[in-house]
Design goal:
It catalyses: N(6)-[(R)-dihydrolipoyl]-L-lysyl-[protein] + NAD(+) = N(6)-[(R)-lipoyl]-L-lysyl-[protein] + NADH + H(+). With 467 residues, the chain is α/β, with parallel strands linked by helices. It folds into three domains: 3-146 and 274-344, FAD/NAD(P)-binding domain (3-Layer(bba) Sandwich); 160-271, 3-Layer(bba) Sandwich (FAD/NAD(P)-binding domain); 355-459, FAD/NAD-linked reductase, C-terminal dimerisation domain (Enolase-like, domain 1), CATH 3.30.390. Helices cover 32% and strands 24% of the residues. Strands 1, 2, 3, 4, 5, 6 and 17 form a seven-stranded mixed β-sheet that branches. A five-stranded parallel β-sheet has the order 8-15-9-10-11. It has a five-stranded antiparallel β-sheet with strand order 18-19-22-21-20, sandwiched between helices.
Length: 467
């Protein structure tokens, strides 16, 4: 065999799986279709979107808050070209970092489309040059996902765009219509709203970020309307999206069945993502996909073929980079005879708007559906000294705890640095902490994390100190 472990796909799940396999002593290769490593996340997903979110948040603060801070400047002008250029530099640096890690860990990088010949043989077809074959003992499929569209909302990459095109626009839209109020829609909608675009979010369900706790949805809706002027049309079913040349016409039905027509110059289709398995030749090894195109695996992420595993967006579960990373590590460690474990309930979710939204564990809706007895503790950021000092008073921390045992069942945050704060929630829940445990830990003052302590105090006999 040429290799002991071969990974197909170099996104966060794939490259982390390759690194861990190499650390464990396996001769490892990674196959990547494109010329750069890092997959969707590093190239057209997490990293570039965060670069634009940061740039536009700086612009928004300069436009709206500097004067109040005592900083007097001329009226700032948004330079979208420079923002996108900086984003490209961040992407390049990050992808170069992955390339370095491959060399450091002596992982062979093979560029081209990897497809199965049989369970131990992979054909690699580069964009230029001749195809070749390699043999391998074990294989990890980590080919990720791509933007989904609908028959009546086909992405044309011109005015009807996906998140990929939204990261490369040459002009600030006059009116961006965002189809889908999930994470991607809210993040990229925020980017363009901050630099002057009118943004309308059209969501089929009755609230935005519908997979998160409903209180967080309400907080983000309120803040996005107040701070950015985003218009929300929830409970609206889109029926058609048409590119007429210089504008896009979106037609939708409201919950009463009335037709609504919205005109803009761009429509961002952000209705989710679908597994990317084209070209893999799964049929050659007898691997099947489910009704949503996901590769079927067991609890150890093994497919129906004993030496082939699959991780990340191509298997069931949330489509998050950090979930894929954990799965990549788990599979590699299983190859070495270890017995790793992932608690999928404790994979945090984050929306990188401002305020940020983050959550882990059960939502209140899930606890109600289960019939669980629980209690709620919450604390608003507007009551926090640190938040007032930084003018970040939108949002709250919400703690859900078992009514009898006080064990924390869910932590949900809308507020400044929620994405970083949620790690403390994951830590507490991994150790099955009670709300009182966290409430009795010393939290530095003044910090945003004091809101977590106060929410835990509120969950234990309503003992919050600062409300």
């Amino acid at each position: 065999m040429d290799y002991q472990v071969t990974v197909i796909g170099s996104g966060p799940g794939g490259y982390v799986a390759a690194i861990r396999a190499a650390q464990l002593g396996f001769k490892t290769a990674i196959i990547e279709k494109y010329n750069t490593l890092g997959g969707t996340c590093l190239n057209v997903g997490c990293i570039p979107s965060k670069a634009l979110l940061d740039s536009t948040e700086h612009f928004h603060n300069a436009t709206n808050h500097f004067k109040e801070h005592g900083i007097e400047i001329n009226t700032p002008k948004a330079n979208l070209k420079q923002m996108i250029s900086r984003k490209a530099d961040v992407v390049q640096q990050t992808c170069d970092g992955v390339e370095f890690l491959m060399k450091k860990n002596k992982i062979d990088v093979l560029h081209g489309v990897g497809s199965f010949v049989d369970k131990n043989t992979i054909k690699i077809t580069p964009s230029e040059g001749e195809a070749k074959q390699i043999t391998t003992e074990k294989i990890i499929i980590a080919t990720g996902s791509k933007p989904a569209d609908l028959p009546f909302a086909k992405i044309d990459k011109d005015r009807i765009i996906s998140s990929t095109e939204a990261l490369e626009l040459k002009e600030i839209p006059k009116h961006m219509i965002v189809m889908g109020g999930g994470v991607i829609g809210m993040e990229l909608g925020s980017v363009y709203a901050r630099i002057g675009a009118k943004v309308t979010v059209v969501e089929y369900l009755d609230r935005i970020i519908p997979t998160m706790d409903s209180t967080m949805s309400k907080e983000l809706t309120r803040a996005s309307k107040k701070n950015l002027g985003i218009d929300f049309k929830t409970s609206h079913k889109v029926t058609s999206v048409e590119n007429t040349g210089k504008e896009v016409i979106v037609k939708a039905e409201d919950k009463k069945g009335n037709e609504v027509e919205i005109k803009g110059d761009y429509c961002l289709v952000a209705i989710g993502r679908k597994p990317y398995t084209e070209g893999l030749g799964l049929e050659n090894v007898g691997i099947k996909t489910d009704e949503r195109g996901r590769i079927e695996t067991d609890e150890h992420l093994k497919t129906s073929v004993d030496n082939i595993y699959a991780i990340g967006d191509v298997v069931k579960g949330v489509m998050l980079a950090h979930k894929a990373e954990e799965e990549g590590v788990m599979v590699a460690e299983q190859f070495a005879g270890q017995k790793p474990h992932i608690n999928y309930r404790l994979i945090p979710g984050v929306v990188y708007t401002w305020p940020e939204v983050a959550g882990v564990g059960y939502t209140e809706e899930e606890l109600k559906e289960k019939g669980s007895e629980y209690k709620v503790g919450s604390f608003p950021f507007k009551a926090l000294g640190r938040a007032r000092a930084s003018m970040d008073t939108d949002g709250q921390v919400k703690i859900l705890a078992d009514k009898k045992t006080d064990e924390i069942l869910g932590i949900h945050i809308t507020g400044p640095r929620a994405a970083d704060m949620i790690a403390a929630g994951v830590t507490a829940m991994e150790y099955r902490a009670a709300a009182e445990d966290v409430s009795r830990m010393s939290h530095a003052h003044p910090t945003y994390m004091e809101a977590v302590k106060e929410a835990c105090l509120a969950a234990t006999d309503n003992r919050a100190l600062h409300v």
